[in-house]
């Protein structure tokens, strides 16, 4: 299984949740981005959500030269994979590669590549 698609530049995980009126809710800006991202991936043919371990590559192209933290974008994008039905749960991500690309004006973007890993999906990296 391999899926590749492009979505708008994602918001920071710091921008997802807002608090007010004694409750916690998803921010309107995050919800707008999520709707745009789902729309951008609307032609994606995935069938049933993949249930095994996956490798995810995220290539981010910022909208300006303003600095940003790569790791603050990963959660938003992995949650999107669930919403799109590419995977069942974002805990299936056994390998995550993130790359910063050049600036793409005016809005930036992100290329998402998801590939199935073999049985087990765990890399033998423990030095024991």
Task: Give the % helix.
Answer: 10-25%
Can you identify the CATH superfamily? Holliday junction resolvase RusA
User: How many β strands by DSSP?
Assistant: 6
Counting H and I runs of at least 4 residues, what is the number of helices?
Answer: 2
In spatial order, strands of the major sheet run: 1-6-4-5
Name the shape in a single word. Answer: globular
> How would you spell out the order of helices and strands?
EEEHEHEE
State the major sheet: 4 strands, mixed
Distance between the ends: 31 Å
Low-confidence stretches: none
Structural domain count: 1
CATH classification class: Alpha Beta
> Which class best fits the helix and strand makeup?
alpha+beta
Average of per-residue pLDDT values: 93
- What is Rg? 16 Å
CATH third-level topology: 60s Ribosomal Protein L30, Chain: A
CATH architecture descriptor: 2-Layer Sandwich
Q: In what range is the share of β-strand residues? A: 25-35%
Structure commentary:
It is a single chain. The protein is α+β, with helices and mostly antiparallel strands and 128 residues long. The protein has a single domain (2-18, 25-116), classed as 60s Ribosomal Protein L30, Chain: A (2-Layer Sandwich). The chain has two helices and six strands, in the order βββαβαββ. The strands form two sheets. A four-stranded mixed sheet has the order 1-6-4-5. A two-stranded antiparallel sheet has the order 2-3. Strand 2 (17-20) and strand 3 (23-26) form a beta hairpin. The protein is globular. The termini are far apart. The model has no long low-confidence stretch (mean pLDDT 93).
